[in-house]
Specification:
There is one protein chain. This protein is α/β, with parallel strands linked by helices and 248 residues long. It is 48% helix and 15% strand. It has a six-stranded parallel beta sheet, with helices on both faces. β3, α4 and β4 form a beta-alpha-beta unit. The longest helix is centred in the first third of the chain and has 25 residues. It is globular and about 55 Å long. The structure holds 3-methylbut-3-enyl trihydrogen diphosphate (2 copies) and magnesium ion. The site of one 3-methylbut-3-enyl trihydrogen diphosphate has 11 residues, from β2.
């Protein structure tokens, strides 16, 4: 089985999971945290190198205040509880998004955890928090604009690499596989630039029900796909043959 180097997940459906059980939505989010822990463990075992989880979008700030507050509290608890597990498992924590918008107490724990796990190298757990791709691209354009204004960069000389380097994900390769749970077939402002050639996988399962087995199913399907990157199938077969010969 081909294991994606970078797996990204839009963890959707916590609210519906709770509503189906006549429970408050926040209980769905709490249950969702258990799925996160199971999936992190499984990814580590499988040898995934980067796992990016869409945990809170730029647009999610517009949800009812009590839900936003409950989600932030849950995030704080998660970060506090998770640190020792991350250290034990050799996982490095990273985060993307407009992190300044997070409550002070949360951004403090987040920064500390990122710093404390910086030396871990078995897997990167990258949390997208207060993240929106358009917001990220806007901030990147502002950064490049400032470089042009102070004479460090020529507008006509901007490359795709320069744009990639100005994004929050500059240290992370593009995702190989993107999974979205809960049956919605959209990307909701997630990694728009970075997923240009990412394989997409949609499942009906709600995030709290998304199991290790379902993750394996997604990766199995990913393994069966041919990623062509604009080339023809014949070109790819030639390339594979040549690469194979190169290894002998
Ligand atoms: C995903 O679950 C988690 C967040 C967006 C924070 P939702 O809360 O969006 O769940 P549904 O889509 O309402 O079921
Ligand atoms: C996307 O889910 C964001 C996260 C999973 C954090 P949403 O539930 O916010 O997306 P929409 O509103 O259905 O597109
Ligand atoms: Mg949703």
């Amino acid at each position: 089985m081909q294991i994606p180097i970078h797996l990204a997940i839009i963890m959707d459906g916590n609210g519906r999971w709770a509503e189906q059980r006549h429970l408050p939505r926040i209980l769905g989010h709490r249950k969702g945290v258990e799925s996160v822990q199971g999936i992190v463990d499984e990814c580590l075992e499988l040898g995934v190198r980067y796992l990016t989880l869409y945990a809170f979008s730029s647009e999610n700030w517009r949800r009812p205040q009590d839900e936003v507050e409950a989600l932030m509290a849950l995030l704080g608890t998660f970060l506090k509880n998770e640190l020792s597990r991350l250290q034990k498992m050799g996982i490095r924590l990273m985060a993307i998004g407009e992190l300044d918008r997070l409550p002070k107490s949360i951004s403090k724990i987040l920064k500390e955890s990122i710093k404390k796990t910086a030396g871990n190298d078995r897997m990167v757990l990258n949390l997208a928090l207060s993240y929106g791709s358009r917001n990220e691209l806007t901030r990147a354009m502002q950064r490049l604009g400032r470089e042009i204004a102070n004479g460090k960069l020529q507008a006509d000389a901007i490359t795709e690499e320069d744009i990639g380097m100005a994004l929050d994900t500059h240290d992370i390769p593009d995702p190989d596989l993107l999974i979205r749970t809960s049956g919605e077939m959209r990307t909701s402002n997630f990694l728009l630039w970075q997923t240009a050639y990412t394989e997409l996988y949609f499942t009906e399962a709600l995030w709290p029900d998304f199991s290790r087995d379902q993750l394996l199913q997604a990766i199995e399907e990913y393994s069966r796909r041919q990623r062509r990157f604009g080339l023809t199938g014949a070109q790819l077969r030639n390339k594979e043959n040549n690469d194979g010969e190169g290894r002998h």
